[in-house]
């Protein structure tokens, strides 16, 4: 019959589509940009770091492995710079090139580096020792610029090269000549790669607009050729080894090697796509283009999930991973202007937190916590019962039968009365102004915007909004104004905020002359609202344009 | 597209003619089709229904109506003269219920009703509670809260309907000399002398000639050394004067009474005490105290009663009075009043206690100084009732704060029993002082034991709004709000398809609390069991504040939401409800901008929620699953016109004033891609819009009519019986169209226009027919694409249009239409308005039943699993309309039927164990004793007052204590007897 007092229920806000997706948040978290301008502002043509696929398998010593994981190479002009991943600092510069260098690549064990050159020379340097690089090997076989030199992911001594002489060659480190030579391209070969997990397969992309797959076991021509409309700037095999990406002009084509057919053409860039890189353990692909955009694609439907803009055409980029889980660490972007931009994702403590949350989530999904909570509550109940029985025992020295207090409670099914918080008591007892002050206290540990919203909505329902807003001085009205300004643009808060703002203007506009703070805040609010209005108008205009386009399209198709 | 009515087909669509007063449809026969065209004008009008010129016949109709209103016979002669005001409103002045049966339909006796603001009465042994309802006296057993007897009191007479203030019961009192009898006074001067143990006496009231009876009290006066009932009746003389007249039984028969006192003030209340030795009459701010002058002398007849009256002013408007006389026996053996303590409750919240009042009164009419009362002020609003406790140490008061306050007079301390469900209307202390009876404004009465303050008896009736007879005590003082005194919105009811005995009603926190806004607020869902006729439980389905202060600091009431639509899914597992709230206009002054008025601003801030509830199978409790904030939205939240459920799947459809039909279906609730489960591992669901179908705007259908986008729209939805098609009628009043929507694809298959006239009030689908109720009732066959028949309803007020109901019973393939009878004197539905209900069978255009009801019908719903209807009226009564061929009652046997049956079964054994009843022999049928004798000690816990135990144990000091065995038997005896008989 008599209803129990319940504290004011917190509103449950609708889950709106957040303007920022989790993916975008992830890529936004690459912060702490560090720019490094190359010597004489040579364009950064290539960024690479030791392939992670077999690094551990081939490591000779722990020190070397650790060191190997810590290096990446940046090629710009006639130099190759070697950076530390951890410290983001330049460690060493290799400048022993006669002309422009290409494709400086560190071997998976981090000990040697190979680079091609415009002169057609290919050189292998020792990385580890000293500040001055030692040339270990030089090949002069190519007569035209060598654009691609890459270490085989499977064998430490095998590498490949692609050259403007329209050939792709396979090399063995000790020997003086190429072990294989693949010819068939009609134009410069500017990109190439080993197929992962398939030791004998190579892929190359050429300015003759073809992507060709070569098999070391099958001499002669290519085993597979994909013809595109535009020159191929970059090829990137995906980890599975069945899918291949090729940057062709401003598009990226997705090729299926097993079915031998193109899957998709991604046309999100406006200008030539110059570089592609894997990220997030192969679940994302990052592309860079001459239009200065970096775009992140997911690899199932190839939708753009994030992106950012750089001030200069992008020539090279790489998502550098590190650590045991090969988590993305840096987003390194090399630009035409010679600037290397390094954006780093905070790891360590934050990563730790995120991991803890993930495990908690997982447990929650599995229901482990509910079990845990059950156990906890059972334990607590036992303790309570014991305590109450103990107190009863103390009380009843000469009593024969002890009736525990809990029996009545459990029989009635009545729960212990909820203790109201101070602001809830204020609300219940009609001290609305102090209640509102309490929930708007930004410094309070219990501050939550939704609590304040709940109180304001309840005040409106109880026709007490004005009563709660009236009679404030400059100090007590400002938090309210700031709160309104902060949330007036949130669609879930705006209706209430608008009402509160109206009331505040109505009550306090006469004091604006006397208080600069108040005047400032009112001005800020006006500015924010007018910006929102502008946005809304823009949206309406856009909507109108789209609608007219749609109608036009429908008519055209009809 | 549908050009329905070529002339030949149209002729089929005959119209019933209209008559506001006496037309009868009984004798009408269906005429051959050729004859329907005799009156050419009407026939052509019928044919041209498809053209938008239906306004002209309406004008004709009103003319005909005025001409023919008293010439029913001529109407019957040329019955096919198709006056468009062919109505469904037929009245008859002869008896209570006008029934014109063409077939086997019949209407049951009403059940339920509204408890009046009259103190409930305990029987002397406290085993029964007599509650005065607006149309009946109901006797309840206090042991098990069951209805023992319902004595219908024929208060409302249909022929007196023209009077603006219709008669109502003003007082009831238990006879002091013979406790089986009850006196009931009606405002028009009828006095019933009822035997409440048998129900006799309801047909033969005494009648006295008065203008208006205001109040009545009853005392057992010693007349010729014999106790006889004397009625003191406060009757109205002029607007501001009244007289008190005493009647005894003979006087009532002769219609002559003894005039005791006349005073020229606004009379309010009359109370008496101590065997007629004291009378207290309250005017607005004055009390008149009358003391019996005939001291010592024996009173030989009523005419010998002489009173000395004193009057004095009180500081507030009197809302309630309680007298506590202390009697003492004189040496001669006579009885005298020793002292009188008086307490009055004020309309402004204060309680005034006059201790030992008589000694302060002036001796012989000489004007004494002001009498100073003691003031107790806790109540914020009017004190609705204040009573002395049995021992005089406490006062018990209650009011709109829903708090029972116990004042300890010596210390001035207060104790509270807070958060009762509604305004406390009446408090009665039982004859033995062991319990209090509280009558609350939510049509419930409870008996609380004084020791534990726990309810031992709870009676809860249908809580729907009623048209009350007397203004509330709140309205004695001017308030910042105005309460509603008419019924403007239909009662939202529905029945659970899985539980035919329960109906669900949307109600407010009591009559007064819910009628404070512009429209009644109904945040609660009352589950009412019609088989036991008890409220089962109440759920808050919209925001409500039972434990918080129910008014603002400015004194305005807090407006709660109003549930506007409700529907169960076909399997009864889901309930969809729509509630609306808009801020009161008084709050919105600072928000006015530009040229907007407060009404628009308030509209912009409307909160309209569509909620989906999961219904627990066992106790029909509800759990909110999803709340859709703005289900229909344009630039502001749009009204949801209708919500219907798919008859074959868990799916709802809603229609809003934005002209969109939305389908709602459940889906598994997911969190991060995984199905989320409840605490018991059950799968959780959530509701979302699965499809939105935009209805074609009216302007696109017919270029001829320009409709401004702001004109109000009306609409309704109906699923076909197999759920494959949804009919959506929607449009402005100038012309709405019915869209036929394929529920599988959402495509609009068809659009039928010109089936309606005016606002759409209801659409139902029954087999291949579509029944549309607007200002016309049209039955349209979808398959043959023609109107089967059509009647025009009489023009009524806007409110009456709201109160038109359409209900379809699929079992009997019939449908019922109910509407208030047009009354040109009333533009609002107030007291005295009547309704008519007409039952049609689908195949026959002749009504199966035309029934006039003495009250406005606020809801009609089809009975679940049976071929009938249930109607709820504005007196909170429930009527069942059944096809009498059907054996099974549509409702489960109502309480009194139930009683009769079980009585005959158990009666013999009961008579044997009968005890404590004064007149065993008279109770041949013994029906009312069944429940109380059917006692179960395991169930009814004995309530033992602590003082009784103390009496046993403290009877003597420990050394002189009775043997332990004796004490044991005393204690056992205490616990084994029922508390009421201690």
From TrEMBL, chain A:
Family matches, as Pfam families: UTP15_C, WD40
UniProt subcellular location: Nucleus, Nucleolus
One Gene Ontology cellular component annotation held by this UniProt entry: nucleolus
GO biological process: positive regulation of transcription by RNA polymerase I; rRNA processing
Keyword ATP-binding: no
The organism's place on the tree of life at top rank: Eukaryota
WD repeats (start-end): 139-181, 182-215, 266-298
UniProt keyword annotation of rRNA processing present: yes
Residue intervals of the U3 small nucleolar RNA-associated protein 15 C-terminal domain: 397-549
Major location (coarse): nucleus
Keyword terms: Nucleus, Repeat, rRNA processing, WD repeat
InterPro entries: U3_snoRNA-assocProt_15_C, WD40/YVTN_repeat-like_dom_sf, WD40_PAC1, WD40_repeat_CS, WD40_repeat_dom_sf, WD40_rpt
Name of protein: UTP15 C terminal-domain-containing protein
Organism whose genome encodes this protein: Sordaria brevicollis
From TrEMBL, chain B:
WD repeats (start-end): 376-417
Cell location: Nucleus, Nucleolus
Keyword rRNA processing attributed: yes
GO CC terms of this entry: small-subunit processome
PROSITE patterns: WD_REPEATS_2, WD_REPEATS_REGION
GO biological process, one term: positive regulation of rRNA processing
Entry keywords, A to Z: Nucleus, Repeat, Ribosome biogenesis, rRNA processing, Transcription, WD repeat
UniProt keyword annotation of Transcription present: yes
Pfam families, per database record: Beta-prop_WDR75_1st
Chain intervals with Polar residues compositional bias: 51-69
Entries under SMART domains matching the protein: WD40
Region of interest (Disordered), residue spans: 1-69
InterPro entries given in the database record: WD40/YVTN_repeat-like_dom_sf, WD40_rpt, WDR75
Superkingdom per UniProt: Eukaryota
MF-aspect GO terms: RNA binding
Name of this protein: U3 small nucleolar RNA-associated protein 17
């Amino acid at each position: 019959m008599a209803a129990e007092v319940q504290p004011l229920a917190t509103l449950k806000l609708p889950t709106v589509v957040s303007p920022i997706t989790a993916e975008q948040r992830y890529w936004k978290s690459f912060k702490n940009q560090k720019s490094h301008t190359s010597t004489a502002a040579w364009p950064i043509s290539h960024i690479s770091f030791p392939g992670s696929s077999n690094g551990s398998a081939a490591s000779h010593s722990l020190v070397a492995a650790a060191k190997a994981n810590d290096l990446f190479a940046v090629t710009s002009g006639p130099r190759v710079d070697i950076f530390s991943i951890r410290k983001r600092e330049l460690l060493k510069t290799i400048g022993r090139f006669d002309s422009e260098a290409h494709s400086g690549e560190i071997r998976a064990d981090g000990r040697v580096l190979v680079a091609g050159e415009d002169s057609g020379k290919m050189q292998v340097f020792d990385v580890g020792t000293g500040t001055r690089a030692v040339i270990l090997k030089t090949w002069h076989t190519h007569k035209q610029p060598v654009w691609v030199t890459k270490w085989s992911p499977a064998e430490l001594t095998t590498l490949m090269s692609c050259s403007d002489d329209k050939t792709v060659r396979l090399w063995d480190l000790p020997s003086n000549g190429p072990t294989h030579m693949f010819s068939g391209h009609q134009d410069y070969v500017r990109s190439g790669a080993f197929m992962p997990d398939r030791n004998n397969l190579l892929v190359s992309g050429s300015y003759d607009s073809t992507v060709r797959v070569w098999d070391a076991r099958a001499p002669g021509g290519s085993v597979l050729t994909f013809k595109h409309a535009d020159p191929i700037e970059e090829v990137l095999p995906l980890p599975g080894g069945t899918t291949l990406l090729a940057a062709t002009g401003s598009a990226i084509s997705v090729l299926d090697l097993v079915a031998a057919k193109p899957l998709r053409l991604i046309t999100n860039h406006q200008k030539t796509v110059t570089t592609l890189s894997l990220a997030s353990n192969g679940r994302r692909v990052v592309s860079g283009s001459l239009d200065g955009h970096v775009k992140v694609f997911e690899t199932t439907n190839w939708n753009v999930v994030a992106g950012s803009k750089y001030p200069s055409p992008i020539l090279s980029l790489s998502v550098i991973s590190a650590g045991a889980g090969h988590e993305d660490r840096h987003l390194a972007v090399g630009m035409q202007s010679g600037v290397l931009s390094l954006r780093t994702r905070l790891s360590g403590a934050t990563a730790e937190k995120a991991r803890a949350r993930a495990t908690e989530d997982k447990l929650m999904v599995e229901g482990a916590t509910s079990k845990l909570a059950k156990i906890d509550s059972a334990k607590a109940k036992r303790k309570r019962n014991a305590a109450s029985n103990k107190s009863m025992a103390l009380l009843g020295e000469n009593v024969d039968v002890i009736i525990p207090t809990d029996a009545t409670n459990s029989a009635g099914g009545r729960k212990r009365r909820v203790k109201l918080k101070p602001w809830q008591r204020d609300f219940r007892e009609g001290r609305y102004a102090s209640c509102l002050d309490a929930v708007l206290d930004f410094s309070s540990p219990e501050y939550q915007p939704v609590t304040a919203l709940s109180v304001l909505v309840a005040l409106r329902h109880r026709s007490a909004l004005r009563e709660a807003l009236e009679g404030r001085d400059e100090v007590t009205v400002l938090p309210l104004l700031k709160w309104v300004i902060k949330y007036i643009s949130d669609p879930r808060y705006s209706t209430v905020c608008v009402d509160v703002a109206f009331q505040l203007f109505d009550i306090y506009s006469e004091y604006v002359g006397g208080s600069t703070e108040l005047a400032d805040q009112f001005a800020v609010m006006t500015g924010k609202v007018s910006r929102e209005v502008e946005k809304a108008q823009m949206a309406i205009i856009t909507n109108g344009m789209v609608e007219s386009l749609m109608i036009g399209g429908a008519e055209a198709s009809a | 597209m549908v050009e329905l009515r070529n002339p030949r087909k149209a002729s089929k669509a005959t119209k019933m003619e209209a008559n506001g007063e006496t037309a009868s449809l009984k004798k009408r026969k269906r005429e051959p089709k050729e004859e329907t065209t005799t009156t050419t004008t009407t026939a052509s009008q019928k044919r041209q229904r498809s053209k938008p010129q239906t306004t002209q016949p309406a004008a004709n109709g009103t003319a005909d109506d005025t001409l023919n209103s008293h010439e029913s016979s001529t109407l019957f002669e040329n019955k096919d003269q198709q006056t468009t005001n062919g109505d469904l409103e037929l009245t008859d002045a002869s008896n209570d219920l006008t029934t014109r049966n063409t077939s086997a339909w019949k209407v049951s006796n009403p059940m339920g009703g509204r408890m009046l603001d009259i103190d409930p009465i305990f029987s002397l042994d406290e085993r029964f509670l007599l509650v005065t309802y607006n149309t009946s006296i109901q006797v309840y057993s206090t042991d098990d809260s069951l209805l023992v007897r319902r004595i219908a009191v024929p208060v409302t007479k249909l022929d007196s309907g023209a009077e603006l203030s219709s008669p109502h019961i003003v007082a009831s009192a238990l006879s002091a000399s013979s406790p089986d009898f009850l006196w009931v006074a009606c405002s028009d001067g009828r006095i019933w002398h009822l035997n409440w143990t048998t129900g006799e006496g309801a047909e033969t009231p005494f009648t006295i000639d008065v203008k208006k009876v205001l109040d009545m009290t009853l005392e057992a006066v010693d007349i010729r050394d014999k106790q006889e009932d004397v009625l003191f009746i406060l009757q109205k003389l002029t607007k501001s004067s009244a007289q008190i007249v005493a009647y005894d039984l003979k006087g009532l028969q002769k219609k002559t009474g003894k005039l005791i006192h006349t005073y020229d003030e606004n009379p309010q209340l009359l109370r008496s005490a101590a065997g007629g030795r004291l009378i207290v009459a309250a005017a607005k701010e004055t009390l008149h105290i009358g003391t019996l002058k005939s001291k010592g002398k024996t009173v030989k007849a009523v005419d010998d009663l002489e009173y000395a009256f004193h009057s004095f002013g009180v500081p507030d408007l009197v809302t309630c009075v309680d007298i506590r006389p202390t009697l003492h026996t004189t040496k001669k053996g006579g009885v005298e009043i020793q002292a009188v303590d008086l307490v009055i409750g004020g309309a402004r919240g204060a309680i005034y206690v006059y201790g030992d009042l008589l000694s302060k009164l002036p001796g012989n009419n000489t004007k004494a100084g002001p009498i100073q009362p003691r003031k107790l002020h806790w109540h914020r609003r009017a004190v609705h009732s204040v009573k002395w406790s049995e021992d005089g140490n406490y006062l018990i008061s209650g009011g709109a704060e829903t708090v029972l306050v116990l004042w300890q007079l010596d210390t001035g301390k207060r104790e509270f029993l807070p958060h009762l469900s509604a305004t406390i209307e009446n408090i009665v202390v039982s004859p033995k002082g062991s319990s209090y009876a509280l009558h609350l404004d939510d049509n419930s009465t409870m008996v609380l034991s004084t020791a534990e303050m726990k309810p031992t008896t709870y009676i809860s009736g249908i809580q729907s709004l009623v048209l009350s007879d007397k203004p509330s005590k709140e309205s004695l003082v001017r308030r910042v709000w105005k309460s509603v005194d008419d019924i403007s919105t239909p009662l939202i009811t529905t029945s659970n398809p899985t539980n035919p005995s329960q109906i669900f009603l949307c109600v407010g926190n009591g009559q007064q609390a819910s009628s404070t806004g512009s429209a009644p607020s109904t945040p609660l869902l009352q589950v009412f069991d019609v088989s036991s006729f008890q409220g089962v439980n109440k759920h808050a389905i919209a925001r409500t504040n039972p434990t918080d202060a129910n008014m603002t600091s400015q004194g305005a009431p807090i407006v709660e939401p109003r549930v506007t639509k409700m529907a169960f899914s076909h399997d009864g597992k889901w309930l969809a409800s729509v509630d609306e709230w808009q801020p009161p206009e008084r709050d919105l002054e600072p928000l006015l901008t530009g040229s907007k008025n407060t009404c628009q601003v308030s509209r912009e801030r409307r909160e309209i929620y569509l909620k989906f509830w999961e219904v627990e199978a066992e106790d029909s409790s509800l759990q909110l699953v999803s709340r859709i904030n703005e289900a229909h939205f344009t630039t502001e939240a749009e009204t949801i016109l209708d919500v219907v459920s798919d008859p074959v799947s868990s799916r709802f459809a809603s229609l809003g004033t934005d002209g969109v039909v939305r389908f709602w279906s459940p889906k598994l609730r997911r969190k991060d891609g995984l199905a989320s489960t409840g605490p018991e591992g059950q799968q959780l669901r959530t509701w979302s819009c699965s499809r939105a179908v935009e209805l074609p705007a009216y302007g696109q259908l017919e270029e001829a009519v320009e409709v401004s986008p702001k004109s109000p729209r009306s609409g309704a939805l109906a699923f076909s019986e197999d759920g494959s098609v949804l009919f959506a009628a929607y449009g402005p009043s100038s012309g709405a169209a019915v869209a036929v929507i394929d529920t599988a694809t959402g495509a609009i298959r068809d659009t039928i226009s010109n089936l309606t006239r005016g606002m759409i009030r209801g659409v139902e689908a029954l087999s291949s027919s579509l029944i549309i109720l607007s200002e016309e009732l049209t039955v349209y066959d979808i398959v043959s694409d023609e109107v089967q028949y059509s009647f025009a309803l009489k023009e009524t007020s806007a409110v009456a249009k709201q109160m038109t109901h359409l209900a379809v019973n699929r079992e009997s393939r019939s449908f019922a239409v109910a509407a208030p009878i047009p009354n040109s004197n009333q533009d609002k539905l107030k007291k005295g308005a009547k309704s008519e209900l007409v039952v049609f069978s689908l195949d026959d255009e002749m009504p199966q039943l035309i029934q006039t009801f003495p009250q406005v019908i606020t809801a009609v719903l089809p009975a679940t699993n049976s071929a009938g209807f249930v109607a709820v009226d504005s007196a909170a009564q429930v009527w069942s309309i059944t096809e009498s061929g059907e054996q099974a009652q549509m409702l489960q046997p109502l309480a009194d039927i139930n009683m009769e049956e079980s009585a005959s079964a158990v009666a013999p054994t009961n008579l044997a164990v009968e005890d404590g009843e004064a007149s065993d022999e008279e109770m041949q049928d013994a029906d009312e004793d069944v429940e109380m004798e059917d006692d179960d000690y395991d169930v009814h816990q004995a309530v033992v007052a602590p003082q009784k135990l103390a009496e046993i144990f403290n009877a003597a000091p420990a050394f002189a204590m009775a043997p332990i065995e004796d004490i044991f038997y005393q204690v056992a005896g205490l616990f084994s007897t029922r508390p009421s008989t201690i």
